[in-house]
From TrEMBL:
Keywords carried by this UniProt record: Aspartyl protease, Disulfide bond, Hydrolase, Protease, Signal
Active-site residues per Swiss-Prot or TrEMBL entry: D85, D286
Recorded family membership: Belongs to the peptidase A1 family.
Superkingdom, taxonomy of origin: Eukaryota
Species per Swiss-Prot/TrEMBL record: Trichocladium antarcticum
Protein name per the record: Acid protease
GO terms assigned for molecular function: aspartic-type endopeptidase activity
Length: 488
């Protein structure tokens, strides 16, 4: 290719219905750049496609479950609404003349294009590598095209000469803002990605950022490049090392050791280990994945406990179905502990790991549900923790990440974790200094423990039924974001 020519796209341009405001930096003396990220409905391919990618992709449920932010690219600036992804490392946009964005049939299959980019419309656009960009995601969508460089603004920060992908062919209907390690860029050679440029161009002191997704029902969260907001988490921020790729030795993903996962029932003063050490699970903290994927040996006892129905196989709904009443079970949470018995613990409440977003599909009759559900059909929710169909490392996505305040420290190969202060209104921003690592700072005081509910519900009874702890072995880390899966 590809001398891009300005050309009117035939397809309808669909804008996300949520205001995606870039916040002004609040701390002028500090090199900290906040950006607002908004949960937005994903314009998916419509209900007929629901089951198809369901194994990996909750993104097909056309509800608010992915995090987007707006960046401006080129001269004059063009808006690109991008999916924020800690699990990949390239920023890429959809070309206005891409196959997907010019075909009604393709968009019916893959979803309506969210923003497109006009290469010819930017005077600062420079081609870096024709045909050199090719990326494939675990959900088997992907994109290919060119690498280019151009000016990019994100929040109040402007970066010059950032290398980015432009998709000529795509099965992904929005662009991505990959903010992972540069070792995972989709190019043949590692290039400085957006995080590298932030430091290279003096915008932040160190390659680190904090992510606060906020609770399931909240519309927006925040990423703080170069800083930590001590009003957004409870207690201490604890640091754990990221695990290098076993094959290459490189730190290429935010992989950490999940050393125990426990279903805790405070009122019964009892808990059930879903997985335990000494065999940690290697998990990737991946904001680009809406759900969490853990081995079936871990998910099975959880589903039994919740009285949930695994409808992921065959031609079913592709979901783990559960009575929505379980969302309000305040007497149950999952405790994720990382890096051993003194490592950080993040509690995920039932209201956070059970999602109430199937109702519109049920009302439309577009979701095939099993007959004879043991609860009212209209009251069907889904569990945000799914059985992994892939090799480890496993993927821990938004259904976990919302409950955590996470500092991604790429310079020191470390992750800072604390319990997220959901719904926090205040803000107190602290810059992360060069060489400092995850700051040893405390957040707000933890809330007082909840009053013990007077009566135990069905879920809790099952917690006590003695689901045996199931140890889980971890095989060598697999390269998740393999290339060439698309067969182009
Ligand atoms: C890729 O997209 C271009 C531009 O829309 C189109 O001409 C071409 O046929 C597509 N290639 C494939 C393999 O789909
Ligand atoms: C990639 O990141 C590493 C670690 O931060 C850094 O040392 C290296 O210079 C970066 N590579 C490029 C091409 O920027
Ligand atoms: C998690 O839940 C446990 C048990 O209910 C509680 O003791 C602990 O303080 C909670 N941890 C955090 C970080 O809130
Ligand atoms: C906790 O549950 C286990 C089985 O899951 C049971 O053996 C034990 O007696 C229970 N302990 C308490 C204090 O209820």
């Amino acid at each position: 290719m590809h001398s891009p020519t300005p050309h009117q796209r035939r397809s309808t341009k669909m804008r996300l219905g949520v205001g995606l405001l870039a916040l002004a930096a609040t701390a002028t003396a500090q090199r900290v750049v906040p950006i607002s990220i908004a949960k937005a409905p994903l314009p998916g391919p419509g209900p007929h496609g629901l089951g198809r990618r369901a194994a990996y992709s909750s993104t097909l449920i056309n509800q608010k479950n992915a995090y987007f932010t707006e960046v401006k690219i080129g001269t004059p600036p063009q808006t690109a609404t991008l999916h924020v992804d800690t699990g990949s490392s390239d920023l890429w946009v959809l070309w206005e003349n891409s196959d997907l964005c010019n075909s009604v049939a393709l968009q019916e299959e893959w979803g309506t294009c969210v923003d497109t980019f006009s290469a010819a419309g930017s005077s600062t656009y420079e081609t870096v590598g024709a045909d050199a960009f090719q990326i494939a995601y675990v959900d088997e969508t992907g994109a290919r095209g060119d690498y280019f460089s151009d000016v990019v603004s994100i929040g109040d920060m402007t970066l010059k000469g950032l290398q980015m992908g432009i998709a000529v062919n795509s099965t992904c209907n929005w662009g991505m803002l990959g903010i992972g390690y540069n070792a995972s860029v989709a190019a043949a050679e590692i290039y400085p990605n957006i995080i590298d440029l932030m430091v290279d161009q003096g915008k932040i002191a160190t390659k680190a950022y904090s992510m606060y997704l906020n609770e399931y029902t909240a519309e927006t969260g925040t990423i703080l490049f170069g800083g930590v907001d001590t009003e957004k988490f409870y207690g201490e921020l604890k640091s754990v090392p990221t695990i290098a790729n076993k094959k290459t030795g490189a730190h290429d993903h935010f992989t950490v050791a999940l050393t125990s996962l426990t279903a805790v029932s405070p009122s019964a003063q009892n808990s059930t280990a879903l997985s335990t050490s000494p065999t940690p699970l290697e998990v990737i903290l991946d904001s680009g994945t809406s759900m969490t994927y853990l081995p079936p040996s871990v998910t099975r006892p959880l589903y039994r406990m919740l009285n949930a129905i695994d409808d992921t196989s065959g031609s079913g709904s592709g979901q783990i179905l559960v009575d929505c009443a379980q969302r309000t079970n305040t007497d149950l949470h999952l405790a994720f502990q990382f890096n051993g018995p003194s490592g950080p613990v993040v509690n995920v409440s039932a209201a956070e790991f059970i999602l109430d977003d199937l109702r519109p599909y049920i009302a439309q009759g577009s979701l095939a549900l099993p007959r004879n559900l043991p609860w009212k059909k209209d009251n069907t929710c889904r569990v945000g923790v799914l059985p992994a169909e892939h090799e480890p490392p496993y993927l821990v996505g938004d259904t976990f990440l919302r409950s955590a305040y996470v500092v991604y420290d790429l310079d020191n190969h470390a992750i800072g974790l604390a319990q997220s202060a959901l719904g926090a209104a205040g803000s107190k921003i602290v810059e992360i200094k060069k060489g400092q690592g995850v700051p040893k700072v405390s957040g707000v005081a933890p809330p007082p423990p909840r009053a013990t509910p007077a009566k135990q519900n069905a879920g809790v009874g099952r917690v006590r039924e003695g689901l045996g702890a199931e140890a889980v072995g971890v095989a060598a880390a697999a390269a998740l974001l393999g290339m060439g899966l698309l067969g182009w």
